[in-house]
Amino acid sequence: MSGNGNGSGSGSGSGFTTCLWFDGNAEAAADYYLSVFKDGRLGRIGRYTEAGPGRADSVMVVEFEINGQKFIGLNGGPQFTFSEAISFQIHCADEAEADYYWSALTSDGGEEGVCGWVKDKFGVSWQVIPAGAIDLISDPDPGRASRATAAMMQMKKLDVAQMRRAADAG
Hints:
Shape: elongated
Strand order of the largest sheet: 1-4-3-2
Number of strands: 8
Largest sheet: 4 strands, mixed
Strand content: 25-35%
Number of helices: 5
Order of helices and strands: EHEEEEHEEEHHH
Radius of gyration: 19 Å
Structural class: alpha/beta
């Protein structure tokens, strides 16, 4: 692949596009994410041709963007699945926004995890982070940070007020 080092290769724009590998449901996933995240748009949809490897005219790729992040959903087949080794952080302005994302992403087959992690119905992992949580676990006072982190480790959905009480308890 050739390029001039400034991010301009054969595609347009700059930055990165995250490719998510699905087993035949990339278009449904894109529609789902566009319903959950209010700042999004659907892009191009590419279809398999007679050359394969998918069924001719079935969706091969779907481009979409949510919250300024570019994605491409690839219907690649069952060979690869998602794991928590990759996750997307959602930095929320407040508890209400965190509650919204937590509920939306765990509904219809999603799963609650620990420490603010959820897995959506497609198996993609997300970290729902309400404002103030990162500040508490990275407090310059090691005792406060440790107490806030210990409290967080006992939670599923992050509760910043509870984390703050734990931090202040020392």
